[in-house]
Amino acid sequence: MRIQKILAIGALCAATAIPVFAATATPDGTFVDSYGTSFDFSLCGDGTALCGVLTNLEGKSATEENLAFVGKQVMQAKQVAPNQWKGELEAGGISAAATVTMTSPDTIDIQGCRGGIFCQTLTYTRT
Q1: In 3-state terms, what secondary structure has residue 90?
Q2: CA distances, 90 to each of 42, 46, 120 (Å)
């Protein structure tokens, strides 16, 4: 009986914690990946869409052509679920379908796919 009460209390706490994250988390801010590439994200459009401005580019992607997009909005995505947006990442005539998922108040995963086959997910951490 005691174990059932403990499990019930634990389940209740978990159930109430999830909506708190969904209600209080905001993607507004600067997020950086392990390579040093960063984006400034903000809610835009009707207040539920997500816009991303490329603020820094590092690693093999930091070519002269790609560096021209630093400081520019390269992504806009529509909200499809709490803490998740889908849209396009566009730079230099190249575009990729992008899914942005806020996995915690301080982390965002971006999955980019080209041609629906070649996909990569990178984790970005709030700075």
Answers
A1: strand
A2: 17, 21, 15
* pLDDT at residue 101 in the model: 97
Give the residue among 77, 76, 36 at the shortest CA–CA distance from 55: 36
Measured between alpha carbons, how far is 72 from 40 in angstroms, rounded to an integer?
10
User: Which of 58, 59, 26 minimizes the C-alpha distance to 43?
Assistant: 26
Task: Look at residue 71 in the predicted model and tell me its pLDDT.
Answer: 97
Whole-angstrom Cα distance, residue 9 to residue 75? 42
Average pLDDT over residues 40-56: 96
CA distances from 117 to 112, 114, 120 (A): 10, 6, 10
